[in-house]
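Students often ask why inverse folding is considered easier than folding. One informal answer: many sequences map to the same fold, so there is more than one right answer. In these notes we will look at a single instance of the problem. The structure comes first.
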């Protein structure tokens, strides 16, 4: 370049002649060092510095180097801002760059500052590039690596702080592919799968697809006195071994597993939904409370950012670290003894079944047990079934509010026809109670036709309001999804008649029926709860909000749903409760639940129910029983039962006897 070119200044001069005076002002409009620093910061934040110039090498080479430094480094690119620019000479400057890396889903950030030396050449500012401009102290051929250290997971506790779920020893049983020749791997995999009672062909395919040095887990088993697979059986299979470890588990394999959920490696779906909070291989809640309250239970993992030499995994320097923060225990109201008792009572029931127990004085859920016939479904809290004659508690409340008393005569006939549809009593209905009988006897003997004959005395809205006053259809925040029932507020003819006896479009869950019984016991509408009040407010699940706000719509609440502010306050009174208790006492004294008379402790009050479903003739039936004993309200449900008294009654008897012992 010529001397004239080197001395050239990009200068704008303005000459103004005024009053014979000549004034000249000059402005330097070339890019400043601050401009260059801003462009560099923006490019570093995008990992693409194509708009900047460098004193050695091309911008594309620097961009490629940034890609190599961050390869496999999972956080998003950093936020980069210019902290300041100091001019060190006419054509030199030093820029300070401030970096903020959002390294995880918590509020923790990795922050630091670096400096970049700038030199103006031919009106353009160039950066003296080195890796330390991007990461403080980073050397050539080093790259970034992020590792996390799991935090100690919080326990799940029950009533009085009793630990339910905690770290328990396990054995991860699988095939170590490095310990068995390739031709023998399929044979070993099938043999181990048969020993563990998992699908042999599926596991053999899994082993074949894994890397050559993989340890492929077939099953994680509890490593306790009840372990049936021995070390000798495992070691007898070539390449098979058991790796000791721990996992958050309940006291037994089946204990409240639908409610408590499980912990394990994050699924692909959970990783995708986590918005970067989870990676493949992370341990997290997979279902139930473990999933819904994972943020509280999991705590915050520790993090380490290291510089490693490219092509190795060895750390050359620690750039950032944060210690793990242990998770917080999740306190529930479950009574471990009653929960285990409920599961024991249902152990031999082949169809879906449930036992739900509440404490009327507080609304605390003490047990939410599902039978083996539920096949892992949450029947206790999420089942949706017609309640049958147990709904006559709500029907009777509506009748009482319209002038009925226990002595009011009702017409109990063998059958009643409404708009061409015939309604009958149960096949075992005692003949001596056909005719005009008082409401107390109609309730005790569960006379369908007697209640339907009184259908013109109450409107459908009356029934829906009475049910809502007892908790049916009123959502509540219990810390996990639950169905609270649905009673249509508008129905006529056969639909209204069916509602009188808990059929038609009326739906409840075992939880909602236990809530109804608890409300009778408390003398006011009970709001059920599974978590301590502070836990419910602070533990947000993955599915926020609730649907349903009263008796006209299905009420299903998600984990952190607040009680509906739209629900009409309950007008249920202690006087009404007293009358309903009298009627429920008559069911045990002279009606369909007489087998509960010999349960030790306070007198048992109950109501049985049978609900028809399906198109078979005769139709299949659900069996229900609700009971009150002291400060205990219980609902028992059997999906494929006979009568409430014959299928549900013995289960209720066994549960109440066990609870009293």
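Output (designed amino acids):
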């Amino acid at each position: 370049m010529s001397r004239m070119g080197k001395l050239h200044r990009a200068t704008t001069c303005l000459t103004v002649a005024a009053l014979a005076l000549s004034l000249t002002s000059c402005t330097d409009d070339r890019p400043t060092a601050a401009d260059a620093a801003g462009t560099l910061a923006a490019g570093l934040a995008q990992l693409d510095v194509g708009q900047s110039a460098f004193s050695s090498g091309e911008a594309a080479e620097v961009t490629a180097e940034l890609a190599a430094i961050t390869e496999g480094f999972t956080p998003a690119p950093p936020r980069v801002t210019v902290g300041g620019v100091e001019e060190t000479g006419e054509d030199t400057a030093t820029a300070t760059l401030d970096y903020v890396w959002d390294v995880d889903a918590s509020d923790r950030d990795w922050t630091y500052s670096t400096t970049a030396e700038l030199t103006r050449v031919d009106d353009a500012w160039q950066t003296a590039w080195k890796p330390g401009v991007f990461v403080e102290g980073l050397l050539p051929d080093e790259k970034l690596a992020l590792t996390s250290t799991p935090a100690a997971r919080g326990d799940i506790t029950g009533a009085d702080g009793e630990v339910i779920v905690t770290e328990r020893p396990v054995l991860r049983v699988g095939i170590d592919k490095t310990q068995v020749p390739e031709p023998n791997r399929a044979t070993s995999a099938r043999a181990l799968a048969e020993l563990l009672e998992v699908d042999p062909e599926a596991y053999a395919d899994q082993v074949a697809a894994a890397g050559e040095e993989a340890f492929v887990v077939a099953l994680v088993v509890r490593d306790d006195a009840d372990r049936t697979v021995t070390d000798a059986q495992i070691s007898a299979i070539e390449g098979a071994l058991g790796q000791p470890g721990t996992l958050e588990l309940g006291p037994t394999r089946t204990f409240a597993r639908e409610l408590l959920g499980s912990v394990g490696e994050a699924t692909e779906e959970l990783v995708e939904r986590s918005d970067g909070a989870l990676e493949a291989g992370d341990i997290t809640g997979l279902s139930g409370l473990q999933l819904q309250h994972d943020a509280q239970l999991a705590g915050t993992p520790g993090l380490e950012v290291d510089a490693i030499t490219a092509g190795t995994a060895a750390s050359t320097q620690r750039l950032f670290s944060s210690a793990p923060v242990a998770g917080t225990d999740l306190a529930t109201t479950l009574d471990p003894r009653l929960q285990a008792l409920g599961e024991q009572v249902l152990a031999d029931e082949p169809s879906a079944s449930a036992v739900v127990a509440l404490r009327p004085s507080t609304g605390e859920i003490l047990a939410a047990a599902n039978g083996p016939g539920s096949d892992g479904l949450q029947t206790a809290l999420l089942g949706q079934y017609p309640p049958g004659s147990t709904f006559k508690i709500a029907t009777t409340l509506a009748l009482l509010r319209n002038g009925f008393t226990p002595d009011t005569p009702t017409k109990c006939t063998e059958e009643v026809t409404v708009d061409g549809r015939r309604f009958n009593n149960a096949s075992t209905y005692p003949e001596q109670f056909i005719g005009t009988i008082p409401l107390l006897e109609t309730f005790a003997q569960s006379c369908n036709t007697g209640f339907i004959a009184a259908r013109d005395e109450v409107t459908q809205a009356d029934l829906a309001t009475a049910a809502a006053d007892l908790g049916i259809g009123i959502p509540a925040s219990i810390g996990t999804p639950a169905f609270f029932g649905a009673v249509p507020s508008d129905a006529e003819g056969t639909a209204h008649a069916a509602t009188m006896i808990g059929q038609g479009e009326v739906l409840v869950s075992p939880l909602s029926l236990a809530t109804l019984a608890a409300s009778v016991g408390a003398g006011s509408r009970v709001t059920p709860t599974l978590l301590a009040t502070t836990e419910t407010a602070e533990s947000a699940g993955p599915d926020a909000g609730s649907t349903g706000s009263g008796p006209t719509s299905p009420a299903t609440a998600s984990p952190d749903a607040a009680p509906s502010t739209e629900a009409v306050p309950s007008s249920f009174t202690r006087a009404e409760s007293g009358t309903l208790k009298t009627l429920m006492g008559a069911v045990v004294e002279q009606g369909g639940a007489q087998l509960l008379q010999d349960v030790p402790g306070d007198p048992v009050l109950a109501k049985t129910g049978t609900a028809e479903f399906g198109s078979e003739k005769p139709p299949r039936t659900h069996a229900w029983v609700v009971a009150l004993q002291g400060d205990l309200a219980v609902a028992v449900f059997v999906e494929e039962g006979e009568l409430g008294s014959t299928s549900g009654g013995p289960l209720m008897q066994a549960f109440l006897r066990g609870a009293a012992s």
